[in-house]
Amino acid sequence: MTIAKMTVPELEKFLRAEFPQAFSGNDILIEEADGASCRLRQRYSEQMLRPGGTVSGPTLMALADFAMYVVLLSAIGPVGLAVTTNLNINFLRKGVPGHDVLAAARILKLGKRLAVGEVSLMSAASPEVIAHVTATYSIPVADGFQR
After folding, report:
1. C-alpha span between 60 and 103 (Å, rounded)
2. What 3-state DSSP class applies to 10?
3. Helix residue spans in the chain (DSSP H)
4. Are 137 and 111 in contact (CB under 8 A)?
5. pLDDT the model gives residue 147
6. What's the CA gap between 27 and 13, in Å, rounded?
7. Alpha carbon distance 11, 4 (integer Å)
8. pLDDT per residue over 10-59, tens digit each?
9. Cα–Cα distance, 84 to 65 (Å, whole number)
10. How far apart (Å, rounded) are the C-alpha atoms in residues 105 and 37?
11. What is the DSSP letter of 102?
């Protein structure tokens, strides 16, 4: 059983202080985070849409990347300098306009220096996955020196 190093309130406080450009308003909500998985909700806004009336790729990629960051922080604690080294996304179906987007992230492998995870993105209107993401994060060493 995984024990979270940060609770949802601790994650929210940390992200508001350290990453306000991504987490300052109320458009993204952390619904759960347990050290192995998390679920985020991005509230619908017309700014999410691309021409043609579908949720844009950049919106989905940003939410997936942020979900990976949240699940990783819940697993390792407040390590602000953990960064994405790879993100791969497969768009599976149209994101329905007018509905929130949900991100369900989970860690597949957590090592000392790298973490690999996956994110399923869904419209709140349907349980079908609209995009599937795999991502790798680099975790900095505790003392800040590369070895």
Report:
1. 9
2. helix
3. 8-18, 57-76
4. no
5. 40
6. 15
7. 11
8. 999 999 999 988 887 789 999 999 999 999 999 999 999 999 899 999 99
9. 8
10. 5
11. E
Q: Looking at this protein, which amino acid is placed at residue 136?
A: T
121 vs 139: CA distance, rounded Å: 24
Q: How far apart are CA 32 and CA 2, in angstroms?
A: 14
Distances (CA, A) of 71 to 39, 113, 121: 9, 15, 14
Q: In what order do the strands lie in the sheet with 114-123?
A: 28-33, 37-42, 101-110, 114-123, 129-138, 83-91
Query: Could you say which DSSP state residue 35 is in?
Result: S
Residue type, 50: R
How far, in Å, are 47, 96, 143 from residue 53 at the CA level? 11, 8, 47
- What is the chain's Cα-based Rg? 15
Map tokens 């597949």 to a residue.
108
